[in-house]
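$ run holo --ligand "3-methyl-2-oxobutanoic acid" --emit tokens
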Amino acid sequence: MTNERKPMSLQRLLDMHASGDKIAMLTCYDAAFASLLDEAGVDVLLIGDSLGNVLQGESSTVPVSVEQMAYHTRCVARGRKSAWVLADLPFDSYHASLEQAWHSAAALVKAGAHMVKLEGGGWTAPVVKFLAERGIPVCGHLGFTPQTVVALGGFKVQGRDEQAAELLKRHARELQDAGATMLVLEMVPSALAAELTKTLSIPVIGIGAGVGCSGQVLVLHDMLDITPGRRPRFVRNFMQGASSVQDAVRRYVSEVKAQTFPQDDLHGY
Ligand code: KIV
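-- output --
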């Protein structure tokens, strides 16, 4: 089947958030999957630094470099036709200075990214502002942030108590005010994620954050059930009952759009 979808745009993603049309995002690291996911209707392809775990066999995302992210971003950008291309700024690529952040983000944009994603709140707002003012669309990432798994004390749901929830809400507003045009929320209680989705004017994409977000994202290899070892409880195996990988991805897209995925009570590991 040929892909006749219109190319995704930032405005369309903002419109989908405003109108309540759900956004289906999956991680993607190469051209073959980019083509398959695009044809199956995925709206946003995320070149996640999860490629450190998934492709490289590392125990965290920390060792991933900008060069590696740019390589995979280029592969995905070549394979996609209409999906939005979002690439992660890896650990130690935006932390040292605004200048470092600019050069890292520019490398990903030159490789084909439409938007870059960075993790954390508070100190990241000036980084977002710097990049957004210079024309690079930025997505924030709050809640559980894999690049700082050690500081967070492990794979834990974030924003559970009132103080943590208030801090997360403040960080989300600061990112939006700084010019972020999308936000990923990972492993936060669904009521908090739903509240943020209602109050922010930018799309909020959840992963282990309940069904009340503007859209969902999963690590591709998790939902295809080919990740070795432990998987978070919020992941569903979409290969179960599917006739092919394409069928599994189509089912993911349609369940996200119909809001039958995720189940609301599964947030963590
Ligand atoms: O790197 C990644 O795959 C991500 C998702 C977990 C959102 O950032």
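-- notes --
The pocket of 3-methyl-2-oxobutanoic acid is lined by residues 27, 46, 48-50, 88, 184, 186, 207, 217, 219 (CB under 6 Å).
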